[in-house]
Design goal:
The chain is α/β, with parallel strands linked by helices. The chain contains six helices and 64 strands. The strands form seven sheets. The protein has a 33-stranded mixed sheet. A hairpin with a 2-residue loop joins strand 2 and strand 3. It is found in: Cell membrane.
Length: 975
């Protein structure tokens, strides 16, 4: 008995000693933890919340009651400061909390790195640092936390590679590294994590292949690597992960075919492979995924037919196969039996045929998108079977026929997209039953008829787009009932009548497009209520009258285009908004000055006020419009000079002041507008020289200075405009020669220099402008010399005008090969010679005023002269002609001398052999043989023979003296 008592006492004392030791030890540990936590507190800043989370961390309060602290046996085993508004860094002193099992600092504003000292927390089971602003690498020492089961450090700015040491965490269940900036490949050591259930690596910059070793993580339920740069094939080993429920490999660059092994994932509920480069057919084995709820294979290169069936996929709710190259018809087997399909997206493939009736058995279907395919046929009248349909997208196909009236039974319909088909007929009145309809797009069809009044009953409508149809009649007067309307697009139809005043009660309206119709009348005063309006396009109608002054209240307008109407009066009411980006009032009858208030729209990019009756000066305040790229003030009555303040508009690309009454010199600062692509200052009263600084506008495509009073030489700097397509300087007073530097404008399409005072030759360098096509017009100048044969190189040229100059010489035969030439004018020059044979196609009046030109279509040229001209130069021809004339003259004189000698000899013989009485008769008979005609002719011939007699006397020294002949000639010429 005493022995037992002594034993019990000894046991009691031992237990008491152990208890006291434990108590003493715990107290010491608790005291140490509090000191460390108070030190850690100094590293945090918790002023993001009205009441600091760490306010009760004090040595005066029991540590186990501190916010976020969890104790066990008086030891700190858990610290949860998630979503506490903390900033600052993670202290390395956390490593002194040796009993810590859970550390959660997620959803804060912490910065800096993850301290490698955390690896000393050998009892740590969970580490949550996600959703902060941590940077640096994942410390490799993290692999020393052998007991770790949850590691969630994603949604930070972590970089570098995933350390292979993570493969040492054999107890790890959850690994979350998503939404960081990690790079490199997925380490193969991931395969060592046999207990891993969730692996989230999405939205990083990981590359390389998905390792085959992933197939060893047999407990894996979630695997997500979306939005990385992974490549290569999908490993077949993934098919071994039978516990997998979510597989997300989307938005990478994976290639090859979809492995049939995925059909073995019997628990898979979510499969997304979208946004890769997968090809081939959809594996039949995917039909074995009986638990599948969502299948998304969109945005790949898949081909073949769609062989998905709901025979086994009874739980399938979402099927997305859009943006592939799938062919065949819309599958009929998707809605066999009881279907749970709610979302079917087959858009942007190459599907053909019509909408199968079997598809209409999918009564659970809520969203149907068959857009952008090659579907044909009519819309089925039994479409009303899809009673749960909220979105119907059939746009960009080739559907024909009319919209079935049964569509009005789809009471849940919110979006109806039928645009860009070949639908005809009118809008069914039954569409007015769709009380939930929000978006109605029917644009780019061939529909007609009037807009039904019943449509105004669709009070939920926010967007209507009927662009590009043939709707006629008026805009319904009750359109104001659509109070929620944000967009109304009726452009390019045949609508007529006025804009209904009730439209002003659509106070949510932001975009109004009624252009390209036949609308008339004035703008309703109720427009002032459209205070949310940002876009108005009313162009190409017959609207008229003054603008209501109340339009000035539309402060949100950014785009206004009311061009090509009949509006009058001041444009000032449209200048109320400071947010204008585009304003186009072209081709109306606005008058008065341009409002300087437009300069307060600092974002204005395009301003077009041409073809009105605006007067006054160009506002100098426009210099504030530094974003302006298009300024058109043409065809108005503007006066004064171009204000120098416009030199600040450095982004100007199109600048046209054509057809005004502007004066002064063309300013040299225009050369500083480096973005200028079109400059048109024609039809004004500018004088002085064209500034050489224009050569600095290297992007200039069109330069038109015609119809002014410009003078002086054409600047040589024109040659610096290497991008120029059109140069028009006609009808000015330019003098001097055509600058040869124009040859550097190799992209010229049209060159017009006519009606100036240019002199000198046509530069042969113009023949190097190989792109010259529309026109080469040098007419009405004082150009001289020959037409350069190099112009025959302009094989694209369609019109050539060299008329009213002083050109000489032949028309070069090289011009005959200009097969594109269909207008030619060479009139009023001094051209000569034969025309090229191909010019016979042109009318004769193309060559008037050139008297020495010949050949078709003019009168034919002499053969000999033509042949000589073709073979000899002008100098050689002249020499030959002189030689021929000289030779002919000498021959004639020689023959005449011989004849006279013969006659004189005969005469001498006759005198010596006859008596005097017979001499006169013989002479008279010889004379009568040549004399005939009237008396005048007789007299001439008589004198001719008397001269011959004298010549005979002169020719023979043996005869009587010359005085006798002279006397006889004078005597016979006596009257």
């Amino acid at each position: 008995m005493g022995l037992i008592l002594r034993y019990n006492m000894l046991l009691f004392l031992s237990l008491l000693a152990i208890f006291l030791t434990v108590i003493h030890g715990d107290t010491t540990t608790s005291k140490d933890d509090s000191q460390w936590l108070l030190s850690i507190k100094t590293k945090f800043i918790d002023d993001r919340r009205p009441q600091g989370v760490l306010d009760n961390w004090s040595s005066k309060v029991d540590i186990c009651s501190w916010n976020g602290v969890t104790c066990s046996l008086n030891q700190v085993v858990g610290l949860n400061l998630s979503n506490s508004g903390l900033s600052g860094s993670i202290s390395s002193e956390f490593s002194n909390l040796l009993s810590l099992q859970v550390l959660d600092l997620s959803l804060n504003f912490l910065t800096g790195i993850i301290p490698s000292e955390l690896s000393k927390l050998q009892n740590l089971l969970e580490l949550h640092l996600y959703s902060n602003s941590l940077s640096g690498i994942i410390p490799p020492e993290i692999g020393l936390l052998r007991k770790l089961q949850v590691l969630r450090i994603g949604d930070n700015m972590l970089s570098g590679e995933i350390p292979s040491s993570i493969g040492n965490l054999s107890d790890l269940r959850v690994l979350g590294l998503g939404y960081c900036q990690l790079n490199g490949s997925i380490p193969v050591e991931i395969g060592n994590l046999k207990n891993l259930k969730s692996l989230n690596l999405q939205k990083n910059s990981l590359s390389g292949n998905i390792p085959q070793e992933i197939g060893s993580c047999t407990q894996l339920q979630l695997f997500s690597v979306e939005n990385n740069n992974l490549q290569g094939r999908i490993p077949a080993s993934i098919g071994k992960l039978e516990a997998l429920e979510i597989l997300n490999l989307s938005n990478n660059t994976l290639s090859g075919t979809i492995p049939a092994d995925l059909g073995g994932l019997s628990n898979l509920k979510y499969l997304s492979l979208l946004g890769n480069r997968l090809n081939g057919a959809i594996p039949l084995e995917l039909n074995q995924l009986s638990q599948l709820n969502t299948l998304d294979l969109s945005r790949n290169n898949l081909s073949g037919i769609i062989n998905i069936s709901n025979t086994q996929l009874k739980k399938l709710e979402s099927l997305v196969l859009a943006d592939n190259f799938l062919t065949g018809e819309v599958p009929r087997q998707l809605c066999m039996g009881n279907s749970n399909l709610r979302k079917l997206f087959l858009a942007r493939n190459k599907l053909s045929g019509g909408i199968p009736n079997e598809l209409l058995n999918c009564s659970s279907l809520q969203q149907l998108d068959l857009s952008d395919n090659d579907l044909t046929g009519e819309l089925p009248s039994s479409i009303d079977s899809l009673q749960n349909l909220t979105d119907l997208l059939l746009n960009n196909n080739s559907f024909t026929g009319t919209i079935p009236s049964q569509i009005g039974s789809l009471s849940n319909l919110e979006s109806l997209f039928l645009f860009h088909n070949s639908l005809t007929g009118s809008i069914p009145a039954e569409i007015g039953k769709l009380q939930r309809l929000s978006v109605l797009y029917l644009y780019e069809n061939q529909m007609s008829g009037t807009i039904p009044l019943e449509l105004m009953n669709c009070s939920s409508l926010t967007e209507i787009d009927f662009f590009g149809n043939h709707f006629s009649g008026s805009i319904p007067s009750t359109i104001g009932k659509l109070k929620n309307l944000v967009l109304l697009q009726l452009r390019q139809n045949d609508l007529s009548g006025p804009i209904p005043p009730s439209l002003g009660y659509c106070k949510s309206l932001q975009s109004l497009a009624l252009a390209d119709n036949k609308l008339s009348g004035a703008l309703p005063l109720t427009f002032k209520f459209l205070t949310e309006l940002t876009l108005v396009t009313l162009y190409n109608n017959s609207l008229e009258g003054f603008l209501p002054e109340s339009l000035f209240q539309l402060k949100n307008l950014t785009i206004i285009n009311i061009s090509h109407n009949k509006f009058t009066g001041s444009m000032y009411p449209l200048s109320g908004s400071n947010n204008l980006v585009v304003m186009d009032l072209t081709n109306n009858s606005f008058s008065g000055p341009i409002p300087t208030r437009l300069a307060e729209s600092k974002s204005l990019i395009r301003l077009r006020l041409g073809e009105n009756f605006l007067s006054g000066n160009i506002p100098s305040e426009f210099g504030l419009l530094t974003q302006l790229s298009f300024l058109d003030l043409s065809s108005n009555n503007l006066t004064g000079v171009i204000p120098i303040q416009l030199s600040k508009c450095k982004k100007l690309e199109h600048f046209t002041l054509r057809n005004n009454k502007l004066t002064g010199m063309i300013p040299s600062w225009l050369g500083s507008l480096q973005s200028l692509g079109e400059l048109d200052l024609s039809m004004n009263k500018f004088h002085g020289p064209a500034p050489s600084e224009l050569g600095n506008c290297s992007r200039l495509l069109k330069l038109t200075l015609s119809d002014n009073n410009l003078s002086g030489d054409i600047p040589l700097e024109i040659g610096k405009l290497g991008s120029l397509n059109v140069l028009n300087l006609q009808r000015n007073n330019f003098s001097g020669s055509i600058p040869r530097t124009i040859q550097q404008c190799t992209k010229l399409y049209a060159l017009r220099l006519s009606e100036n005072s240019l002199t000198g030759r046509i530069p042969s360098e113009l023949g190097g402008l190989n792109d010259l096509q529309e026109m080469l017009d040098l007419s009405s100048n004082s150009l001289s010399g020959e037409i350069p044969s190099s112009l025959g190189n302009l094989i694209k040229l369609e019109r050539l005008n060299l008329s009213f100059n002083q050109l000489q010489g032949n028309v070069p035969s090289s011009l005959g090969i200009l097969t594109s030439l269909h207008v030619l004018n060479l009139t009023n020059n001094s051209l000569e010679g034969e025309l090229p044979s191909s010019f016979s196609q042109f009318p004769p009046d193309s060559f008037l005023g050139n008297e020495k030109l010949c050949g078709a279509p003019l009168s034919p040229c002499s053969r000999s002269m033509g042949s000589v001209r073709k073979s000899l130069s002008d100098t050689a021809v002249a020499g030959i002609v002189v030689a021929i004339v000289f030779t002919s003259t000498m021959i004639c004189l020689t023959m005449l001398y011989i004849m006279l000698r013969i006659w004189c000899n005969w005469r001498r013989v006759s005198i010596s052999n006859s008596d005097g009485s017979s001499t006169g008769d013989e002479y008279k008979k010889g004379e009568e043989k040549w004399v005939y005609g009237n008396d005048h002719q007789k007299r001439i011939h008589g004198e001719y023979w008397k001269v011959l007699n004298c010549m005979n006397v002169l020719a023979s020294p043996e005869q009587v003296s010359s005085n006798t002949c002279i006397f006889q000639l004078k005597a016979n010429n006596m009257p």
